Amino acid sequence: MSFYSFLNVAKRVTISCPHLCRRILLNNHVKEINVGKHLFSSKPEDVTTKLMGFFDNKKNWGENEVKHGRNWTLPELRIKSNQDLHKLWFVLLKERNMLLTMEHECKRDHRLFPSPERLDKVKISMENLETVVKERNKAYHELETGETGQRPEEVRPNLFQIPERYRSKEYPLPAHLNKDFTVRKLLVKRRIFRDFLRKYREQDLIAKKRARNRDRNEVIHLLKRNPDLDKQMLQEKYPTVDIPMLEKKDKFRGHYVPKL
Amino acid sequence: MSTRWYPIWQKGNPQLRVFLPNFWMKIVKPEHRQPKHVVTFNVSMEMTVHDVRNYLRQIYNLPVIDVRTRIALGPTEADKTQGYIKKADDYKLAYVIFPRDVKFEFPDIFPSDSETKKQLREDEKPLEESKGTFRKFLSRSKNRRGLPGWYSI
C-alpha cells in the first residue's frame, strides 16, 4: 500500500471518530433536519403526506406479494463513505418503521403480511452497516491509540460466584467507594449462598456423569453391532470412554460365538 | 439515547449524540376515537417523551407540538386447549399531538370491496380447474355406474 492510499484510508476513518462525526452531522445533516421556525409553518397537508411515510406504497395495499430487492452486503457498504452510510441508516430505519406498521396493521386485521422477508432483509442490511462502522472505528482507534476502543468485557464471577460474561461500564464512583458493591460482595459469604452453590455444582456434576454414561453405552451398543469398527475413530469421537477397559466386560460381547 | 451503550455524561463534556439510533416506531390504529391531529404510535420500550419528539422532528421532519406516553398492559388470556395463562409483552404507546389544523386519519388498508374478492377468486382458479377435470372424469362413467374408472379403453 502506498503512503498516499494509506492517508486516504486514514482520512476516511477519522470521520467515524465521535467528535468529528458530530461536526459532519452539524455541517451536512442538521441543515436538512433543522428544527426551526419553518418546520412549524409547514402546511397541514405536508404533515399528512409525511405521516403516510409510515405506510407502504398505496398500490401495494392488499397485495399478496410485493416485489423488492436484496439486502445490502458488506463489500457494498465497505466502499461507501461515512456520510453515505449515515444517510443509508436513516433510509433503512424509515423502511423498517414502515414495514413494522404494515405488519402490525395486517395482524390486527387478520391478514397475511405480504413478503415478510423484507423485514429480515432490512435487519441484515442494518447489521451489516453497523459492522462496517465498527470496523472503521476499530481501525481508527488501533491506529491512534493501539487499542480497539470497543467496550471491554471479561469473564468474572457474578453474585452467585458463577462465571459470567461481564461487559464493563462506567460508574460515577470507584468500586471501593461504592457501598452497594461492597455489600453485594459480603452477601456471597453467607451460608445460603454456599449451600446453593454446592447444589448447583452437584447438578452440573450429575449432568456430566449422565453424559459420560450415555457415551459409554453408545460405544458398547456400537461395538456390539459392529465388532470390526475402527476403535481409534471411536476413541476420537468419544474421548471420555475407556475402550480397552470396556472390551474386558461382558456387556461388550455380542450375541455370537467369538472368533478365535 | 438509543438502546446502545454510551459513556456516562460528566459535567463539562459535550452533549451525547446518537449517530445510528436503533429505535423503532409504528403508527397503530387508535382503539377509541380521538382528535384528528393526534396520532397514536407504538414505540420501543426504551423511548422517552423527548426521544419520541426528537425522532419525529429530526428524522421525519414533523412539527410535533406535544407527546404523551404510557405503557399498555399486554393482554392476558387462557390458552384455548391447555388452559394455562399466557400474557403478551407490555408495549409503549405514544400519543403525538400535531398542530390543530393537521387532519390525519388512519388509512383503510384492506377495503372490503370487489377488488380483494377478485383477488381471492384468482387464487382459487387452480382449485376450480381441478374440480372441473374431476367432474369430466366422473362423467365418463355416467352411463355405467359402479364400474371403476380404469375399466375402459
Automatic annotation (TrEMBL), chain A:
Q: Where in the cell is it found?
A: Mitochondrion
Q: Where is the signal peptide?
A: none
Is Ribosomal protein among this UniProt entry's keywords?
yes
Q: Which Pfam families match?
A: MRP-L47
Supply the Gene3D superfamilies for this chain: 6.10.330.20
Is Chaperone given among the entry's keywords?
no
Family per UniProt?
A: Belongs to the universal ribosomal protein uL29 family.
Protein's recorded name = Large ribosomal subunit protein uL29m
UniProtKB/TrEMBL annotation, chain B:
Q: Which GO terms describe its molecular function?
A: structural constituent of ribosome
Q: GO:BP terms for this protein?
A: mitochondrial translation
Q: Where in the cell is it found?
A: Mitochondrion
Q: Which GO terms describe its cellular component?
A: mitochondrial large ribosomal subunit
Give UniProt keywords alphabetically.
Mitochondrion, Ribonucleoprotein, Ribosomal protein
**Quaternary structure (record):** Component of the mitochondrial ribosome large subunit (39S) which comprises a 16S rRNA and about 50 distinct proteins.
Protein's recorded name: Large ribosomal subunit protein uL23m
- Source organism per UniProt: Clunio marinus
